[in-house]
Each structure stands twice: as structure tokens, then as C-alpha cells.
């Protein structure tokens, strides 16, 4: 469903931009044609700018130092590049480009389950999946549907993925989750505390304590991600017997979606700060993949190059 929605959105925007440009070219208004085309195609930049402005104004956190203007600008530029790549290409058109990988030789190897966030799908993880396949690491990329459902409704999909990897490998997988996916992971873990307390877990930009931006959402899952929401409090109560020592939580003070920054941390977890890194960009930060590869006992890099290096600039072909 997410892929279809994003395909429609991409095509509508492109058609609108081309129609605008064609109309004004026919009228001889070449400047208006070019200006309108650019504004329509890059309109998402305004949304990102508003998010970063809200971060600068309302993202103050007494436990995490504020980001410098230079860091915010750097994160904004990178997010400008990643947004169309992810939401205009990988997710709408390439969500099945990298199939799940559970080879016959998977037994005895620790696998990985990849969990995306709000309004995303498994295409978010395409560079990850290509790299994991190269390393021979078994993995499954989960799709969470419907996109505006309650978070608890996604737990069954995660359980099926974990069981498939566990059956194929004979070991508990490492679960890696971005944004809302980390809350799905916690809800799943809370329902299986008897066997999941020591499961290796990595969350990336997850609103563990909600996010300031959640106040503007209307769907069930966004309301659940509001700061100190009733659902988050209930989740914490269900986790009262759990400890977070097995969690690695990546967070950043340039996260334009989950802020204040400490919202993405958990008490007792291994909380790791990503400098000058925006929300979607966090998924492709080399430190995150390197950490996960170490957890599964794989080499952290190939041929002296860091994972995802120049991922946006070169637009590497995704087979």
C-alpha cells in the first residue's frame, strides 16, 4: 500500500510540474515555467525546512547539547538528497528489489530482521540488504501495513519475521528498527518477555518517549507517538519487568522528526549519538551498519570503504 501511495504521489507531482511548465512555455513565460516546475518538484524542501525550524525552536533538551547552525544546515542538505531517493524511488519502485535472504547455509549464522518506520516500507533498507547479502548474513525486511494503523497491529508481522529467521538459523536474530519500527519492536518484546529480554536490539531515531511533532498527527500510530502519550505509558508499564541493557539506541540532536533528542534514548541502554545526522539519513549512517555487522560477526567494511559511503552522491545502481 505504501509503495502504491508513493508511486501515485510521485507521478502526480511530476505531472503537475510538467503541466505547469508546458502551459507557461506555450504562453512565452519561460521564467514562470522553470520557477513553477522547480517549486513543485522540490516542494518537499519546504516541509523539511519547517521541521528543522521546529527542531531549532522547540527541540531544546537539558540532557543533550543543542546542535550548531552548521550541523543543522548540513543535516538539512543531506535530508534534501535522501528524501526523493527514498520516497520517490526506493520505496515506491524498488521495495522488492532486494528479496529476503534465508539461504540453506543460514543455519548457525545469526540473522537480522529489519523494521521500517512510519509511511515507509522495506525498500528503505535496500542498501542494507545488498550489503548483508554480500556478507552472507541472513535477513528479512518487514512490511508494516496498513500505514495508518495502530502500532500494536504490526506486532504479528514482526513475530512472523523473527520466527522465520530463528527457524532458518537456529539463533535469535538481531532486530534493527528505524523510527516507529522501534516502538513496534518494543511492543512485540513486551508480549514475549519470557524469551526476548536478551535479544540484541538496535533502534535508530525511535521516539521511545514520543516526539514533539506527534501533536500534529491524526492517525492512530502518530497519536501513539505523541510525547508521553497514554499508549507509551501503557507500553512502559508492560515492560516493567524488562531491562534495556540489550538495546543500542542511535539518536541525534539534528533529528528533524524525533525531538527533543533524548526522546530517542532509553535508560540503561547503550545510547549512541550521531552528529549532524537527520532522521532518514540516520538509516544510512555507516556507524549504524558497522555496529550491526559486528553484532552478527561479519566484517565491518569491504575493500577499505565504509558502508554507504557516497550513497546519495553517486546514486549507486540497485540490482
Number of helices: 12
Report the strand count: 6
**CATH superfamily of the largest domain, called what?**
Alpha/Beta hydrolase fold, catalytic domain
Instruction: Name the structural class.
Output: alpha/beta
| Order of helix and strand elements from N to C terminus | HHHHEHEHEHHEHHEEHH
The low-pLDDT segments are 301-305, 309-319
Q: Quickly give the CATH architecture of the largest domain.
A: 3-Layer(aba) Sandwich
Shape: globular
Question: Looking across the biggest beta sheet, what order are the strands in?
Answer: 2-1-3-4-5-6
Helix percent band: 40-55%
What is the CATH topology descriptor of the largest domain? Rossmann fold
The amount of beta strand, in percent, is 5-15%
Q: How many structural domains?
A: 2
Biggest β-sheet description: 6 strands, parallel
Give the integer mean of the pLDDT values: 91
Instruction: Round the Cα radius of gyration to an integer and report it.
Output: 20 Å
Text of the CATH class of the largest domain: Alpha Beta
Distance between the termini: 22 Å
Amino acid at each position: 500500500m505504501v509503495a502504491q501511495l508513493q508511486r501515485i504521489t510521485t507521478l502526480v507531482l511530476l505531472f503537475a510540474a510538467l503541466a505547469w511548465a508546458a502551459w507557461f512555455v506555450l504562453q512565452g513565460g519561460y521564467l514562470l515555467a522553470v520557477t513553477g516546475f522547480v517549486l513543485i518538484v522540490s516542494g518537499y524542501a519546504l516541509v523539511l525546512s519547517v521541521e528543522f525550524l521546529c527542531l531549532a525552536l522547540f527541540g531544546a533538551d537539558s540532557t543533550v547539547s543543542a546542535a550548531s547552525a552548521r550541523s543543522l544546515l548540513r543535516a538539512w542538505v543531506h535530508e534534501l538528497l535522501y528524501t526523493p531517493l527514498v520516497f520517490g524511488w526506493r520505496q515506491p519502485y524498488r521495495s522488492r528489489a532486494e528479496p529476503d535472504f534465508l539461504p540453506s547455509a543460514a543455519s548457525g549464522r545469526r540473522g537480522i530482521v529489519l523494521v521500517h518506520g512510519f509511511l515507509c516500507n522495506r525498500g528503505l533498507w535496500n542498501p542494507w540488504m545488498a550489503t548483508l547479502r554480500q556478507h552472507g548474513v541472513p535477513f528479512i525486511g518487514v512490511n508494516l501495513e496498513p500505514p495508518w494503523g495502530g502500532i500494536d497491529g504490526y506486532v504479528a508481522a514482526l513475530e512472523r519475521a523473527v520466527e522465520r529467521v530463528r527457524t532458518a538459523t537456529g539463533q535469535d536474530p538481531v532486530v534493527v528498527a528505524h523510527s516507529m519500527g522501534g516502538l513496534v519492536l518494543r511492543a512485540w518484546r513486551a508480549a514475549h518477555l519470557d524469551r526476548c529480554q536478551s535479544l540484541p536490539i538496535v533502534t535508530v531515531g525511535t521516539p521511545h518517549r514520543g516526539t514533539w511533532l506527534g501533536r500534529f498527527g491524526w492517525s492512530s500510530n502518530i497519536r501513539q507517538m505523541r510525547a508521553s502519550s497514554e499508549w507509551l505509558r501503557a507500553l512502559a508499564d508492560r515492560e516493567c519487568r524488562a531491562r534495556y541493557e540489550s538495546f543500542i539506541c542511535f539518536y541525534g540532536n539534528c533529528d528533524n522528526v524525533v525531538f527533543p533528542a533524548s526522546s530517542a534514548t532509553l535508560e540503561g541502554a547503550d545510547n549512541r549519538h550521531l552528529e549532524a545526522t537527520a532522521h532518514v539519513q540516520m538509516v544510512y549512517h555507516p556507524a549504524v551498519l558497522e555496529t550491526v555487522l559486528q553484532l552478527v560477526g561479519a566484517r565491518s567494511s569491504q575493500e577499505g570503504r565504509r558502508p554507504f559511503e557516497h550513497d546519495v552522491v553517486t546514486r549507486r545502481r540497485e540490482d
